[in-house]
Amino acid sequence: MTTTVPDPAVPPAHGSAALGVAVLGHSFMGKAHSNAWRNVNAFYPTPRVAQKVLVGRDAGHVAEAARRYGWEESGTDWRSVLERDDVHVVDICTPGHLHADMAVAALEAGKHVLVEKPLANTVAEAERMATAAAAARTRGVHSMVGFNYRRVPALALARQLIADGRVGRVRQVRVSYLQDWLADEHAPMTWRLRRETAGSGALGDLASHAVDQVRFLLDSPVTSVSGTLTTFVPTRTGEDGPEPVTVDDAAWATLRTASGAVVGLEVSRCATGRKNALGIEVYGSLGGLRFDLERLNELHLFDATAPPDTQGSSRILVTEATHPYVGAWWPAGHVLGWDHTFTSQAAELLRSIDTGTPAAPGFEDGLEVQRVLAAVTDSAARSGATVHL
Amino acid sequence: MTTTVPDPAVPPAHGSAALGVAVLGHSFMGKAHSNAWRNVNAFYPTPRVAQKVLVGRDAGHVAEAARRYGWEESGTDWRSVLERDDVHVVDICTPGHLHADMAVAALEAGKHVLVEKPLANTVAEAERMATAAAAARTRGVHSMVGFNYRRVPALALARQLIADGRVGRVRQVRVSYLQDWLADEHAPMTWRLRRETAGSGALGDLASHAVDQVRFLLDSPVTSVSGTLTTFVPTRTGEDGPEPVTVDDAAWATLRTASGAVVGLEVSRCATGRKNALGIEVYGSLGGLRFDLERLNELHLFDATAPPDTQGSSRILVTEATHPYVGAWWPAGHVLGWDHTFTSQAAELLRSIDTGTPAAPGFEDGLEVQRVLAAVTDSAARSGATVHL
Amino acid sequence: MTTTVPDPAVPPAHGSAALGVAVLGHSFMGKAHSNAWRNVNAFYPTPRVAQKVLVGRDAGHVAEAARRYGWEESGTDWRSVLERDDVHVVDICTPGHLHADMAVAALEAGKHVLVEKPLANTVAEAERMATAAAAARTRGVHSMVGFNYRRVPALALARQLIADGRVGRVRQVRVSYLQDWLADEHAPMTWRLRRETAGSGALGDLASHAVDQVRFLLDSPVTSVSGTLTTFVPTRTGEDGPEPVTVDDAAWATLRTASGAVVGLEVSRCATGRKNALGIEVYGSLGGLRFDLERLNELHLFDATAPPDTQGSSRILVTEATHPYVGAWWPAGHVLGWDHTFTSQAAELLRSIDTGTPAAPGFEDGLEVQRVLAAVTDSAARSGATVHL
Amino acid sequence: MTTTVPDPAVPPAHGSAALGVAVLGHSFMGKAHSNAWRNVNAFYPTPRVAQKVLVGRDAGHVAEAARRYGWEESGTDWRSVLERDDVHVVDICTPGHLHADMAVAALEAGKHVLVEKPLANTVAEAERMATAAAAARTRGVHSMVGFNYRRVPALALARQLIADGRVGRVRQVRVSYLQDWLADEHAPMTWRLRRETAGSGALGDLASHAVDQVRFLLDSPVTSVSGTLTTFVPTRTGEDGPEPVTVDDAAWATLRTASGAVVGLEVSRCATGRKNALGIEVYGSLGGLRFDLERLNELHLFDATAPPDTQGSSRILVTEATHPYVGAWWPAGHVLGWDHTFTSQAAELLRSIDTGTPAAPGFEDGLEVQRVLAAVTDSAARSGATVHL
User: pLDDT tens digits, chain A, 389 residues: what are they?
Assistant: First the structure.
């Protein structure tokens, strides 16, 4: 015989009903975030969520997406969503120039907010959002910026190892984020290659992740920046013929942190053969770490305090139940993929809502990243001269 | 404003309602299969499914699992599930000795059936199941055995490349499946280490996958077997003290296929340091392939027909939209994990149901694997002498 | 001003003069061994050697080789070399069927002898050689078989780690030696592919190294063998047209050692894409090891006793001064190549001569390997049934 | 019977006698260069050489080294060596501040000259040397700077592939040279850490190789530089107690080449876990390349023009007879080590002497590298502002 599933043992926040979620945007990131909300309760003992509504500009497209991705409803008017009592969390996956208005309005409407990275296209927008987030926090309203790679178990483990002193004092970091979808000079013009819509190119898209990881891993702010930007393919063919590319294809910077580390940073969308290669190397006084997002279940640790005859770079398969996030998923050796990071991210926001602990990374973190990116742009405009933050 | 999500554009099979699914078993495999059914419609344009009921022996545990994993109901009586009109697919994730009775009954009740691997604990059971599946197929009822690694994009690509002649005639295959959860001699006794409940050890658990991959990749049956088995830790501590281990810890075999290839096979649960390492090497007259499940997004191809100065082993990141299964998921470089294979497997069964095409691998495939495993046992008992199939 | 280099501080054995060396054979192995004798004194504090004479069948070719490789003289009559008082070491690099006569005669003439592997083509020849070596040893005459991979620092380190219990009790070994120079079915017939000249194919050529490594690493004899052989390309084109290949292209075997380990062995000359891939995996109760000759400066160690959160497979760059043999060469990170193993091998023989310690591996080791290879052939002829040694 | 080795078939330059070689310096580099001269004739069909004299400051030490390394004589007065008629080649392996005087004097004495890298400690010294080399060249006297990594087969192949357009137009290069022998803050003070003796730290020692590789691979000069330097451990313990370190531990720079490429460069002696890791990544419009000196027999090529379904990063084992330099050595798969590069370098100088073709890299190349390094120092002093060359 069968029985109807009873009410959840884990109570939702502030009452017995599930937390209603709305996602704004239904393309790539909307699909990834929808996947997170659909699955978070299956893996994490968080408050229950209900996939209330998916919002997009084209009614037909968003309705089709909503049906596929498990949403109760779809809609085209994001402002009306903010008025609904059954929506408690607003998750913003739209292009960057829309983030600020949406996030501030949502916070003011008392909704918890998750915003895809980068937080905004400009420092001014990011400041406005951080101010709104700080105000909302005093009212128990939470916000988070979607640096999902903080939820990669290997990177969360790396942060723990650094915090525990396992590599000693960190002196030197090499971080790169390399892709190649613009390597082909015949790849067409898109809104991502115009400054007015995208803000910047590889800098905002890729370096934002890289800078956040530096801050996350070292737990120390960036204090100065020297950098340069390049556009390898200055003209691409758009719908109306050749058009100038007004954002960077690649960026380089040297950062210094308050803790005294020096960071060499390089990002590119023209790195032929690298598909989604966020690469991180950390060198400390007692050890080193290496990571590659294309092999995201692995972390390499060199322990200089190990017996000399067997010192080596140890490839840790970060799939043990004791590793960060892994216990929620599968047994050892059953590897996770890229999308699992979003589910863990959703769980983190839900935990904050449930416990009242501020979510991390918050909008302030997103703002700090934005300031570093702006400093790279400034330095590049000044021939590489160092800019202090 | 918002609109309610309309009926699906993709019609379910044989009518407008969703296909109802029941899963029998709610531990490790039940969790993985639940995940597949919860997500399959989000990624694949298959008939819509409804997660009707999750079945287990303990009412409380299964109710809790059902709630977490998204099931409408839970239950403890699998036979009553077979009587339900709203259940169209039965997915069997119970221990192996229960497979035959459940599967045959479900098929006779007109349910499409998915059975976790290995198909059964004995050849006799597998034969009974294959007979039932053949009969059911004539009535339009589909069945599949859960060799989920056929859904790893890299392995599906490998099969395509071999079929297309990209490595020439396959001469030699090295296949191993290495784990280490029994390497510790203090690991306790479990039902998996008793012949009466588990049938065999690494052989049934791991070699079943390995043998299926050989058949899948080469598209050719195994014709002879020479093998040996070993139990490295002959006694383990159970609840009542020391108890003999009556299954193998590791197995070795040399197989020959109808196509003329020779296969060296090795599986172990005592391979210290290997967590879930299904390793495959294929050597053909014009090229070679290599794969490691711990890096499941990668396939290595050596093309002996390439220009001599740049011949090499090419690491293909199997994450392009044109690669098998990948188009349903994420953009290039956004890697998949172990669990995605189950979602793709569910999609394959749904496609069969939708189109009326027999599902692969069917119970006959599961039976063939079982016969090869039995031949390894026979050969081992005869000091390694070759057994012909 | 300059001064003439004085006599060596390190005295040669048995007097002030250098040890005279003769090498028989001047093709591939003759070149490699010449390189060893030319360089051994520059790196190792052994007795001084003099490159007296290089012997070959073709007077012109061997004279040219002698000049290039640094020999004082060349010759065509190996027996006359045995009569020379200024030759103390005879190094045999000729094809296998000539080894026994040359080595026995040299030992009887009181010369220290190094013989390239495999020791001989047959067990009978190997037995005759081992008997002669034992007799010579009582007269202070040393002999060694050229299993040069014992001198790979990573493999010598692996042996040390196993002996020190760093991986616990060894249960399971995977060893393979894969090449691809016969993968092309149009590769021509050679003497290496005829049983009468070569004895066997991949078995004698490659499995001899593999079996020696098992004995070396585990320090335990092989006690039983089950195996099979295959010739993938049964006919090749010789000078007089098509001709049958009468040796194996590939071989597989399962070995058991006195220490209780099970070894899966596979060798092939048709493994397309593998150039010189001696691969070794060792799984013990407390750890594991991995090695690949194509990356011969690296050893991978998994230590199951390490802290659980950072257990991993550690890639040791075996180039530290404290690693075996490395101190003689270059600073850390300055990698060695294949040929350095021969120089270290020469140093080992010289040390034996200098100290009177029996050289290892001796002819008895070569004989034991030969017996294992013969057992593989026997088992293969008996359909894989186990042969006990 | 034996015959005395006849005169060489390959005549030495300018007569029947061998070219006499003198090496100045007998520590690490002297050992490596001695090894090259001892072996070059065994592998390359160059003019014959005679190891005439090894020069050092300590008569006893250099005599011992000369005996070990195969030199006819040793000496302590480098100037007297320049007067000898039987010395035709002078190879300078002394510390950098001695290079200029020695090299200029040797060239003026009509000796062919090889100088270890970096060419000199200052641009001024390097300019003097380049001027002398140009003058000498008009008299048929050859000179070369010892950027031995140009002789790594994988890097020479990389240059060929780039020149042949196999990766299209090179846009972006990542180059790093990472070591860790100064990672331990207790490592003692040495002359290498004082500006007056060493000139600079990681910059001159490691970045010189890195910059030369950029010039070598891209065949294009560096036109601008932005950089920074850091000393992680500012004080180390010398013989008289704590002492300031006056050179850099690590350096970062962004370079631009005349061909339009942007180069991210990073070198360090504090990169814990990296022993001798010269890493190079090249990204072009049609492909990419990767190299790591710790695996010097391998080059990774990504060919973006390959069939899309099997595009990947191809690990080329650069050991085929058709690859640069390899034909002189061993069959495919028999890997080379670090020291082989010096032997090939010696062969290149001998070829130049024999054929009258100017040697590459010449002193002008060494000077250009020196200018780039000086520009890094200048930029670092100006807060990273770009310096144009």
Answer: 444 443 333 334 444 589 999 999 999 999 999 999 999 999 999 999 999 999 999 999 999 999 999 999 999 999 999 999 999 999 999 999 999 999 999 999 999 999 999 999 999 999 999 999 999 999 999 999 999 999 999 999 999 999 999 999 999 999 999 999 999 999 999 989 999 888 999 999 999 999 999 999 999 999 999 999 999 999 999 999 999 999 999 999 999 999 999 999 999 999 999 999 999 999 999 999 999 999 999 999 999 999 999 999 999 999 999 999 999 999 999 999 999 999 999 999 999 999 999 999 999 999 999 999 999 999 999 999 999 99
The reply to whether CATH 3.40.50.80 applies to domain B151-337+361-388 is no
Which of A1, A3, A4, A5 is most worth mutating to test chain B (most B CB atoms within 10 A of its CB)? Answer: A5
The model's pTM is 0.95
* β-pair partners for B173: B263, B282
Rounded to whole angstroms, how far apart are CA atoms D143 and C40? Answer: 30
Q: How far is residue A206's CA from residue A270's CA, in Å, rounded to a whole number? A: 12
Best residue of C162, C169, C171, C182 to probe chain B, by most B CBs closer than 10 Å:
C171
* Cβ atoms < 10 Å from Cβ of A321: 12
What residue spans in chain A does CATH classification 3.30.360.10 cover? 151-337+361-388
d(CA C180, CA C275): 6
Q: HSE (CB half, 13 Å, CA atoms) of A143?
A: 36
3-state DSSP call for residue B176? strand
What count of other Cβ atoms lies within 10 Å of the Cβ of residue A6?
A: 12
Residues of A with CB under 8 A from a CB of C: 157, 161, 166, 299-301, 303, 308-317, 320, 322-323
Task: Give CA A148 to chain center in angstroms.
Answer: 4
For CATH 3.40.50.720, the residue range(s) in chain C are: 19-148
Q: Give chain D positions within 8 Å (CB) of A283.
A: 178, 180, 183, 268, 270-274
- Residues near D105 by beta carbon (within 8 Å), at least 6 away in sequence: D79, D82
Closest chain D C-alpha to A341 CA, distance in angstroms: 26
Answer for the pair C171, C338: CB distance below 8 angstroms, yes or no: no
Residue D297 φ then ψ, to 5°:
-90, 5
Spatial contact of A274 and A153, defined as CB atoms under 8 Å apart = no
CATH topology of domain D19-148: Rossmann fold (3.40.50)
Q: Which residue of B has its CA nearest to C231?
A: B171
* Inter-CA distances, C321 with A44, C333, D185, Å: 50, 10, 20
User: Is C315 within 8 Å of A310 when comparing Cβ atoms?
Assistant: no
Q: Which amino acid is at B225?
A: V
Measured between alpha carbons, how far is B99 from A86 in angstroms, rounded to an integer? 44
Contact between chains at A74 and B41 (C-beta distance less than 8 A): no
CA distances (Å), C25 to each of C32, C53, C93, in order? 11, 11, 5
Contact D250, D202 (CB under 8 A): yes
